[in-house]
Amino acid sequence: MDSGADAGSGAGASAGAVGDGEPVGGAVSDEGERPEERLERAVRAAEQALIEFEIAVETFRVEVENFSRLHHQRLGPMYSRLDELEAQIAEARAASTGDPEDVRKAKEARARVMPMPGIEELFHDWLDSDGLSPEASAMLTDQPVRPPQRVRPSDEARKLYRELVRKAHPDLAQDDTERARRDEFISRVNAAYGRGDEVLLRELSEEWAAGPVAEEWRPSRSEELYARLEWLAQRKELLALVARDLEESAIGGMLKIAPDDPDRLLEEIAEQLLTQVSEREAELAGLLGSGA
Asked: Is 261 helix (H, G, I), strand (E, B) or coil?
């Protein structure tokens, strides 16, 4: 996964040259820049880098969640069918041979049908960043309840999502009121992106453009800037842990097989499962026919 950490390395405009006259708040560097101005540039660059990293983590989380859900919806019945066929084949073989070992294997195969082996780890319902399923999030935000249609949202949806997060990210807020407004807005952005809803993302982009513009942050003390940098570093470490967990999950591992086209991976798995189903059905028919 592209961490996006390097994307913000050039972010943040220069604070500008110091005007004529005596500097305020510290000595002037050889380049005509106060220490606080250098810190301000560093903070802004760190903010942009963190936001790019969060975008990368969130887009991957959506892909993992969508892949898990679509995998379960589309392929779950095939896995169930395969398990049932395996049990029927084992039972037919045991009935034909009467061998105690075949009988034991038949009982084991039947026991695996319910529940499906490994299904909890492979198909468990992923929760979103708010601890809700996408369907629950949709209901809370008065949006239509519908499953994702693709593992990866369209290019246009991804573009709109990135633009919105870069503009409205809560980490850019400098007071509690502004953070609350941004938190609420971004939660709706995340829900729309998770469903790949381009129309809603465009509407949210217009809504943000028409909303109040937060005042630009102008730190006045070096201590505040140092504290901000420390907070950003801690946030980055937490996101790195989230990214690692996603990448090491079962679904994350599957996505690594086809990072450029995860939707095609679902189709390939479905084709393989259909082939296996056909083979098992033929095997079962042969066993039942030979025992008639």
From this structure: coil
Cα separation, 51 vs 165, in Å, equals 8
- Look up residue 73 and give its amino acid: Q
Share of the chain above pLDDT 70, in %: 72
Rounded Cα distance, 243 and 53, in Å: 10
Task: Give the integer Cα–Cα distance in Å for 87 and 109.
Answer: 5
pLDDT in tens, 196-232: 888 899 999 998 988 765 555 554 567 677 777 888 8
With beta carbons less than 8 A apart as the criterion, state whether 168 and 189 touch.
yes
Dist CA 232 CA 37 (whole Å): 18
Task: Kindly tell me the sign of the dihedral angle through the C-alpha atoms of 77, 83, 84, 89.
Answer: positive
Tokens coding 265: 């991976």
**61: CB partners within 8 A, 6+ apart:** 128, 129, 242, 246
Q: How confident is the model at residue 161 (pLDDT cuts 50, 70, 90)?
A: very high
Tell me, letter by letter, the H, E, C secondary structure of 92-152.
HHHHHHCCHHHHHHHHHHHHHHCCCCCHHHHHCCCCCCCCCCHHHHHHHCCCCCCCCCCCC
Q: What is the 3-state secondary structure (H, E, C) of 196-242?
A: CCHHHHHHHHHHHHHCCCCCCCCCCCHHHHHHHHHHHHHHHHHHHHH
Structure tokens belonging to residue 204: 């949210």
**pLDDT of amino acid 2:** 44
Single-letter code of the amino acid located at 183:
D
- Which helix (H) or strand (E) segment holds residue 168: the answer is helix 155-168
